[in-house]
Amino acid sequence: MPQPRRTRWQLEDGIAWIALDDGKVNALSNELMAELGEALDAAESAGAIAALRGRDGIFSAGFDLKTFARGPAAGVAMVAAGARLALRLLAFPYPVMTVCTGHAYPAGAFLMLAADVRYGLAGPWRIGMNEVAIGMTVPRFAIELARHRLTPPGFARITTAAMFDPDEALRLGYLDRVLPADELDAAVRQEALRLRALDLKAYAATKARVNERALAAIRAAVAVELAQQAA
After folding, report:
1. Cys-Cys with 95: which of 14, 123, 165, 195 at CB 3.0–4.6 Å?
2. 192 lies in a domain?
3. Is 64:78 a contact under the CB 8 Å cutoff?
4. Chunked in runs of 10, what are the mean pLDDT values of the chain (231 residues)?
């Protein structure tokens, strides 16, 4: 019996609207990340910018804990898939937006940090990287993502596993804008159309230069972690 889709996407006016909705907390399982990859492939083939959005109250609760429970090898493979997805977003040749519609726990925050423009919904949400609080070491690739995007105070706070409300997440670099529910959709659409109207060839070349060091650092970090696991 086929499994229900965890993502939906719609192409409109050169914008690929990609919705994450597994009916639960949008845990980044291997299956959901594979579907995101397929949606990004379709967007790139269409020459479209990509806008990723969560479901009501949750952008993503992070990596799928059930996969970690299967053992170290399964956990390493899932984190490596997350790193590849972050690399894909950083290297995507067209603009990438994320719309944080609620909570964003670590791997959800990674997706935002890999995006070019990040909008958030005002509300009682928690956003950040809390791995240390649950007994996990922050992956090297995620540290490089955080170094690339967060302010120095925001980067320093990942060691303390602090989580932030949307306004504080804005100040620390997780988000670019925070808007109330009655303003968010219109603002996101306006920004998406603005991005779509850019010279996308110049955009791709500039984005590659801006993200060049981060991409190299993340690839190196993934190689180190995989080598350590193999040893």
Report:
1. 195
2. no
3. yes
4. 77 97 94 95 97 97 90 89 95 98 96 98 97 92 96 96 97 98 98 97 98 96 81 64
